[in-house]
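User: For my dataset I need records formatted as: sequence, then structure tokens, nothing else. Please produce one.
Assistant:
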Amino acid sequence: MDIHRTAAFNRPLDLNNTGNFLILLITASVIPASVIYHYFSTESLMSAVLSGFRTGIIVFLTWAVSRELDPDNDLSAFVAVTLVLIFIPLLGQASVLPIFWILLILRTLNRSSGVRPGVLDMFFILILGTLLTSTVSWIYGVLTTLGLLLDSKLPPSDRIHFWAGIFMGIITLLSVLPEGLILPNISFSTLPILIIVAILFLPVIMGSSEIKSIADRTEEKLDPTRVMMAQLMALVVVLSFSLTEVHGWLYAMYCVLAGTGLYRIFFRKLLPEEL
């Protein structure tokens, strides 16, 4: 079995790359620091350890999602990481699964590995989408369906991804039938933050009409259309959840959008694109 065909989500993490090494170093530093902080915040040792690892994973995923959204600029991801480190107290007991789910959706759309997602990838994203739909909100199911259907229409198209999207849509429908569709309360409390991060992120989208980055396994340039669709999908995800209920993980996504945008606007001329 060709592992590249069945595990497209798995991107190599070359430690010879300065950026990769730096994010691992930051993550490894954040975990014990977070454990100590939570332990002395009256948490039990086990709870502090779990909180520490959760924080470290969120920091790493913030970097990973940023790299998917702005593949041409290594340092923009570290601006996002800096922001998330500043706002760590706002994350609280944030779940890592939604951020990981976003990462999978983005890698499906932009094909950053260079390999079309295969059976194993589709199975995993359907399982994760179903889990979040059934335990948290049907919005995850709708957005997973949207991501898969959008991917199936972008070249090179794949009918398997279309049917995976249809299947996810059916699962979402079945999940809301027993109790009926419960519409979340619309809240505009985060609207100012949402507007700010969206404005900051616009230069990232507008500057992605030409992409220099190459895929991990094929060494071919990434498709600008796919990269831009992934960026728009990230905005849709943040918008969808920001107007319903603010979850801790959303602050990490605010940092991703704002951080990559701030790099484009203020730091790109001062700092190198690559480490």
